[in-house]
Structure formats: C-alpha cells, structure tokens
Amino acid sequence: MLPVAPEVKAATQLLGLGRQRLALVVGLSKVGDVDLPAVRRDAAAVAESLRRNGYLVMARPDLSADDLRRSLAEFRQRLDPAGAGLIYIAGAGARLDGRSWLVTRSLPAGDAAPDAAALKAASLPLDELVLALQITPASLRLLVVDAATPLPRLPADWQGLATPTLPDGVMALLSAQPGQTLPRWQPPALPSPPPQDPRETTGSPFGTAFVHALLSAGRTGPQVLLETRRLTLDATGQAVNPWLGGRTDERDELGAPTIPIAQWPESVARRAMAVVGGQALEALRRSARPAQAPAPEVATPAPGTAPVAAGPAVAAGTALATAAVGAAQAGAAAVAQAEAAKVAAAQTVATQAAGAAVSAVVAAARALDSADSTGQAAPPAAGRKTPTLGDQREAVEGPASPAGSRPAQATAPAAPAGQTAPPTPPAPPAQPAPPPAAATPAPPSTPAPGPRTPAAPAAPVLNPYGYAAGDSFTYRRIDEWKGESVGLVMQVIETLQTAGDLAAREGDDAQTLDPQGRVRSRSGPAGSATFTPVEEFWWAKPKAGESRDVAFNEVFENRDGRGERRWEGEVEVGKPTRLTTSAGTFDVLPMEGSGWVREWRTPQRTRRDIKWWRTVWYSPELGHPVAIDILERDAGSRMLRKERLELVHMNTSRSVPR
Questions:
Q1: What residue spans of 293-418 are helical by DSSP H?
Q2: pLDDT of 378 higher than 90
C-alpha cells in the first residue's frame, strides 16, 4: 500500500477532504488614534504561518466593534462541530466590571479618558470569542490573545485583562498574566522586498514565539501553546510570563507544515497531483511488468502568461479537473500493466486525486458565496477584469500578508494529451496600464535571503532541584474504576520565589510548591487546601531501598464544607525499572506508600478513616514523577477513589527521555 505523502495530506486539508481547520486572525493595530505596528506585523505573520499548516484563514485587520462581532458570527457559522478552530487576536485590552474587553478602532480619538459606556461601545468582551469557539469539547479549540498593550488614556485599574473563564474544550494563551501590561513594541522596518519567512516579519517577542511554535513540525495544539509560553519566557529573560489555562483535544496535530508556501488551493493541488503521479510510477517500476505509460504532467503557467478571464469556480474547475484526468489516466495505466497489489494502490491514488479536484470546485464556490455574503467582493462590471480564484480567496481571507507572496490571478494549465482544451471566454476590454511606480513587483527569481540568526536565549535559572520558570508537566487523568480518561491536568511553574518555593498553576488553580516540586497549597474555583509541611508522598533524588515516614496535615475548603485531614503512613523506594508513557520511555524508581488518613468535617462534625495507597513513578532523569497511581478505601473496604495520573507531555530545562 502506498504511503500518503505530506503534500497530499496538505491538499486534502485545504480542499475539504480532511478535517476542517479554520482560523480567525484579527490584528487591531488601530485603536482610536493610536497606531500599533507590532500588532499589524504579528497578525500578518500568524496568518501566513497558519496557512502553511493547512488552515483556511479569515484575516480581519483593524475592525470596528460591530465588524468584529460580525466576523465572530461568520467564524462560528463556518466552523464545523468536528473541525479544528483557532482564534488569534492582537491589540489593546482593558478590564472593566470583572471582564476583559478588546478595544477596537471605534474608540473616540483624543487624550481624554473615555467613560465606561464609551469604552464598552468601542470594545468587544473576550467572553464572545470564547463563545464562538464553544461548540463541542471533542475538537481542537484554541484562543490566543495578545492584548496586554497599555493605553495611557485608561485609568490604571482598567489596564490589562481579567482572568478568563474557559469551558471544557477551550484552551487559551494570553501574552501576559491577568492585570499585567507589556511594553508597546516598536519593531524595525522590514527590508524591501520583505522576507518570505513569517518568522522574520513578526513585531513582538510573543508573536515571534507563537509563529516559531506554529512552524515547528509535529506539535499538537496544547504543545504549540506550551512551546509559545516557553519561548517567550526564554526570549525575554523571564520578564514576560504568558498565562495559560483551559484544556482541549490533545491529539490533533497543529504545527505540521508540509509545503514551504501553501498559499492557495490550486498550488497545493498541483503539488499533490505531481506527488501522486510520482508514487504511481514508482509502484509500476517496482512491479514485475514495469509500466510504459509516462507520468501525467500537470502544466504550470509560464512566467508572463496572460491570465484567463474566467469566474473563480470555472477557473478552479478547469485547472483541477484537468489535473485529475491526468492522475486518473495514470491510475488506468497502472491497472493495465502492474501486478494486482500495485494496481490496487494506483487505483486508490487516482481516486483520491479525482476527489480532490471535485472538492476544490466546491471550495471555490463556497468562497465565492462567502465573499458575496460579506460584501467584500463586487460582481464584475463592464471594463473590469473578472475576478479569478486568487482574487476570491483574498476576498474571503483578507489581503495577503507581507510574509508571503501570492499571484493576483490563477492561470489554467494546458490540457493533457488527447484532451480538448475548454473554450476560453472572451477577454475583457483592455485597461490603461498603471504607472510604473504603482505596478505590483513580480516575485523575485532568486531565493529570499536566509533567516536571520536569532540571538542565543538566556540560560534558564534553575533551582537546586532543576526546576525553572516555564517548566510544564501535562498529565492524563484516568479513572481506573470506570476505565476511562477524564481529561488532562497541566501544571506550569510560573516563578521561582525568593524563599525557594515555586509559584505554579494547574488549570484554574494557583499552587505553591516546595523546592522539590511537592504541593504546599492550592486554591481555585473548586476550593482550596493547605498542606503542612507539604504533601509527602514522594521526594526528590530517592535511592532504591530508601524509606521514609509520611506525616502531614491538610486543611481544606470546598463546596461540601470545611475540614481537616491527618495523613500518616510510610513510603519505600523500589528497584529501578522502565516505564513508557505518551511522553516517552523513562528509567524510574517506584515509590510505594500506604497508610491511614483521619478526616474531620465542619460544620457537620463528622469523622471518618480512610486507607490510602500511592505509587509514585519517579524519573531521576526528569527529576519529577511521570505517573502516580492512587487508591483509597473507607474503613469498610468500600472503594472511594482509584485513579492514575500519567505524563503525556512536558517542557523542561532538563534533558528529555529517549
């Protein structure tokens, strides 16, 4: 069976055969009379990076509050329940009435501070972006907000964003911690012509980190956000500390660029067709009776060829249907000349190619319909060129970013041998040539200059046990009693405190850890708990055969009331072994413990005894547990809890597993 090439995967994503990937990219670089060039640059670079990852990008720069609300409604209407959705928005934000507001160009100009009503009228609540993503928790839903730029006109207690409330299935990354602001970045001017690599056109450290993470192959959505946070911390010497929260589907690969410049469906389809033809020929060459038929050739327009004046759906249909016929002919040749196994593979390739062509025509029609519905593309008038598929794509996605070039027209390829070329519609009346200074420069014939060598990141500051700000550990929580996964738990170390403790966050909970990484306290929407001196189920740098007593107090408060627990028992370190999780294979030491916990609750004044067991699978190489088995029963041996936490991903400053 033939493998599916990366180019074909990218084609199926862009042409609608695979899982839908839709992104809304908003750069609010005009806020009243304030200009934010870094926002404009970051939004363009992010849009281009997402296109290279197979996303259909709705690029919407400098919107008013009403336009932004309409774009969100369009995004939600387009996004399939099973599709992958991402919203990126950059600009300036504000806190008001406990909510986050994204300020648009509708803010009245001037130096006077707006009142609350004026600010709200010119802004959009961050909650509405979350609502646009909240369709089903089973699909990838990511929200990236870079809106910590301060507005001097606003009062100090309005600056920054509030902590967002995220439903299951949505994961969010803010460029700064809630309530904090960042400098107003002033990026240097781009050379002319601008670089083709979007990593060279960003405007801020956070935007640069996000684009680098997007263009790193093989990362899932949560991994991209985690990597963005780590790169931002490294690039700013821990000065900028992005906020990360929520959870979403960890299986969908987001950062997997497959084509250097995959900017419009025709080019992707042609590249995929060429790869498909090459695969079919390779299968024939390996067969006992080699094929004599040549590979189908997909004509590429020669430089300077005049564009064909055809509607977008016609242009797409002609170009891709022609290519599909060539691929189907190669499949037919394979059927006639190859062995049975190779024949089946060639048939599959030809069928996929034809299906891609059909989907491209449908996608072009949808793009035309969408552009008409948004009022961004007017029907052709007398004396004006009929828009091509490239023009319609620009109407749907917005103008091309400086990070990449896109031809203004799509030229239909020549028909293969034996086929009759479709009639060419009459050309529109000639237009006066624009003055030379206004002409669009042709794409450079020489390769774009190589990327600049980035400055070496600052060495992370490690505590005595190897932890650094930005380290993160993501675990899958498994209910072994029910035999099902109940979600992901992500712990991120935010800062190293002066006293040696670690400030961390686990989902919506703020945590304080001791220098070894064990929990001292946690608090969040579901309740709080304090451990004195610390949760002692494990310790750093254990030795095989070592044992320690467990003795600590827990004071807790949750929706069921308040109470206190007294934990006692013993933990013993077992022999070294190996353990494989989704994060890798680790050499581990099992730390097995058991004992009793006595619980008192107030105001019910109830007491109960619980028997507990823990097995902590500690990795000396990682300096942290990679799995924890939890078992608890009441005094009558009735099961209360049986869970497993298993590491699925980590970002640390230490070495990673083999």
A1: 312-337, 340-374, 389-397
A2: no
More confident residue, 290 or 575: 575
| Distance of alpha carbon 532 from alpha carbon 523, whole angstroms | 15
Tokens standing for residue 265: 């469906």
- Which CATH number fits the domain 472-651, given the four candidates 3.40.50, 1.20.120, 1.25.40, 2.40.360? 2.40.360
**Most confident range, picked from 42-51, 250-259, 280-289, 632-641:** 42-51
DSSP category for residue 171: E
**Average confidence (pLDDT) over 143-165:** 89
User: Residue 508: which of 171, 252, 87, 221 has the closest Cα?
Assistant: 171
Q: What is the CB neighbour count within 10 angstroms for residue 80?
A: 14
pLDDT beyond 50 at 4 = no
Q: Which residues contact 435 (CB under 8 A, 6 or more apart)?
A: none
Please write the tens of the pLDDT for every residue from 88-130: 999 999 998 888 999 998 888 777 778 888 888 989 999 899 8
| Domain 20-251 listed as CATH 3.40.470.10 | no
Locus of tokens 């380290």 = 471
Q: Is the pLDDT assigned to residue 386 strictly greater than 90?
A: no
Do residues 175 and 147 make contact, with C-beta atoms less than 8 angstroms apart?
yes
List Cα–Cα distances, 509 to 39, 61, 451, 500, 512, in angstroms. Answer: 31, 35, 40, 20, 10
Q: How far is CA 499 from the centre of its chain?
A: 36
Cβ–Cβ < 8 Å for 142, 248: yes
CA atoms within 13 A on the CB side of 356: 34
Domain spans in the chain, listed from the N-terminal domain onward: 20-251, 265-421, 472-651
* DSSP symbol at 620: T
- 43 vs 63: CA distance, rounded Å: 13
Compute and round to an integer the Cα radius of gyration of the chain. 29
User: Mind listing the pLDDT tens digit for each residue in 193-204?
Assistant: 989 999 999 999
